[in-house]
From TrEMBL:
Belongs to the UbiX/PAD1 family. This is Flavin prenyltransferase UbiX. Dimethylallyl phosphate binds at residues 170, 186. Residues 7-191 form the Flavoprotein domain. It comes from the Bacteria. It is an enzyme of class 2 (transferase). It holds the Pfam family Flavoprotein. It comes from Ectothiorhodospira marina. Keywords: Flavoprotein, FMN, Prenyltransferase, Transferase.
Amino acid sequence: MADTPRTVALAMTGASGAQYGLRLLQCLLEAGVRVYLMVSRPAQVVLSMETDLSVPGRPRDMERFLSERFGAASGQLQVFEREQWTAPVASGSSPPDAMVVCPCTTATLAAVSGGASRSLIERAADVALKERRRLVLVVRETPFSEIHLEHMLRLSRMGAVILPANPAFYHRPQSVDDLVDFVVSRVLDHLGVPNALIRRWGQDPDHDTGREAEGMA
């Protein structure tokens, strides 16, 4: 397993699946990882549609709200403006150890594939690629067109991990939360962050997952 990253850039874009991004944020913070968070405008809309949370739009307010909700340590979570070009993620001289786009729209996929860098999210992903840092794209779309597949193949050849939000069922999920945890667990695995969110393949069915251990089943 790769070394546990000290700092992860997490971007949430406007695909369905805001729960994946929020749960990933929670798990990273609980693991003691510093998180640089970027949320696109469409992602804000999806958050209001798919969750009951009233997440503030202003970065400072969002940072305070999410830090309190997930018990982040002081300074552990930083939320950046959508075009905050002075953010550390915008430069190869100060890149995070890894980056995840979760969920990732096919529009973001295309922009990253083409090196567009029109927003801070796209620039941060471009930096991750050029600096050979881990980049995980949790694409949420179905079905995939030939265009989508070509972008995925191109990015995979560049070293990015294409990790579609496709939960499995061998861990016998009992709730939507269990399905979310499957995808988040796989993302954490690729980041090198230890986790016990799900029952692993071949593991004893009676083995408690992280969510059960927390009394969240």
